[in-house]
Write a structure and sequence with these properties.
Layout: H1 3-16, E1 28-34, E2 41-47, E3 49-51, E4 54-58, H2 69-76, E5 79-84, E6 87-95, H3 98-111, H4 114-124, E7 131-136
Antiparallel strand pairs: 1-2, 1-5, 3-4, 4-7, 5-6, 6-7
Length: 138
């Protein structure tokens, strides 16, 4: 599977406003970060979890030993653009910490059991999977 081609297709379908093949549109967000080396915009589709008014994304990278590029980009510059539902807005991306992280991770594992497998793989590489809140800027 060509991940770049899949992402291109998902982004195109999402922006067209219709169905997204093989995915639940209401669980998707397009996240645009600034490339940490180039400064160029980088857009990736991903699953979003709504926790009350909060929008959260998980940097699982399917349990890989390193964080996904989009997470490394927002760690360098937390100003991002979010496209969700039929809205587009600027946001600040802030990783959850401490008790908030633990409570939220426990809930995410309960709702999405595949995340436990991702976490087990990441722990082998001594990596903790970040959870990131996308807070709309005023």
């Amino acid at each position: 599977m060509d991940v770049r081609e899949t992402n291109r297709r998902v982004i195109e379908q999402f922006r067209a406003g219709g169905e997204v093949d093989g995915m639940h549109r209401e669980r998707l967000v397009l996240l645009t970060t600034s490339g940490r080396r180039t400064g160029e915009p980088r857009t990736v589709p991903m699953m979003v979890h709504r926790d009350g008014a909060r929008m959260l994304v998980v940097a699982s990278n399917v349990g890989a030993p390193r964080h996904p590029d989009w997470y490394l980009n927002l760690a360098a510059d937390p100003r991002v653009t979010v496209e969700v539902d039929d809205r587009k807005f600027d946001a600040e991306a802030l990783p959850l910490l401490g008790a908030d992280y633990v409570r939220t991770w426990t809930e995410l594992e309960r709702l999405y059991p595949f995340l436990a497998d991702h976490q087990a793989k990441a722990r082998q590489a001594k990596r903790v999977i970040p959870i990131v809140e996308l807070s709309e800027e005023d």
